[in-house]
Amino acid sequence: MRKQAKLKEALQILTDLGMPRAQCNDRTALCLLARLSLTPKKRWCDAEAPLVGITPIMDWVRAHCDAEYAPNTRETFRRQSVHQFIEAGVCLYNPDRPERPVNSPKAVYQIEPHLLAVLRLVGSAGYKAALAEFQSERQTLVAQYAKQRHMQLVPVTVKPGIVIALSPGKHSELIGDIVGDFGPRFSPAGELVYVGDTGDKHGYFNTELLANLGVFLDNHGKLPDVVIYMREKNWLLLIESVTSHGPVDSKRQIELGKLFKRCTAGLVYVSAFPDRKTFLRYLDVIAWESEVWIADAPTHMIHFNGSRFLGPY
After folding, report:
1. pLDDT tens for each residue of 134-173
2. What architecture (CATH level 2) is domain 154-303?
3. CA 82, CA 75: separation in Å to the nearest integer?
4. From 170's CA, which of 13, 67, 143, 293 has a CA 20 to 30 Å away?
5. Count of H helices and E strands in the chain?
6. Regarding the domain with residue range 2-151, which homologous superfamily does it belong to in the CATH classification?
7. How far apart are CA 14 and CA 8, in angstroms?
8. What is the pTM of this model?
């Protein structure tokens, strides 16, 4: 009975906060309770603000509310409940370390401190007035937090006059090095076709140029991190930024070959690493007929080609 009562109260709070109908459900209500560490036996005045990730949220829900969710619903929790909380200013993302990469397994969420004070008044005479005051200030708070998040982004100049902002982290920093350092050195007249981002999926995408090369894609997620077209040589450089995920190994090379099989340009496969230490971790899986570039030695390339240097096969 206590569990059902607490869940019902949490659902009412979601309505009070004006959350979209798609988020006014048991899953999102349980996420709210987990973020407050509010077990069924606790009162609202006992609400806390722990730093908690998605998997710990699901573990908490299972332990304290007897609600079992399959492990493969983790992304549903993140995309259909937690993401909307962030957008609505209900919780903060990585407040302990804002520069944490967007795809980090250590990502944490915390209830917004002003809202925490309001929710501690649930059931009391002062709740409605406190909620109304919070709602009147929420847009300002959302804009403030959005500005703070934007300050952590990594700026990348894709061409004169066009700057994109990528999610924070070493992966994006290496992408910035590829665009700003590798490109001018090894494809000085190259045209940027695509720059991926772990947060936005495609920070920059010249679909028209790719279509002119005979490539039409409906799934941007399969693209390498950076794509550059060298018009003079009619080469298309497919570049993977290797920080935590793998380089162009044989499997990825075959996958990219199929993805770009109708491309009228010659394909060049490049694995980019931030440093030699990272490169050595993947040395034994890098595909033949591919290239390696290391950001801390930017003037050189390592060729896994055998018979020739940089160029398509």
Report:
1. 888 876 655 655 555 555 556 666 666 666 566 666 777 8
2. 3-Layer(aba) Sandwich (3.40)
3. 10
4. 143
5. 12, 11
6. BsuBI/PstI restriction endonuclease, N-terminal domain (1.10.10.1820)
7. 10
8. 0.56
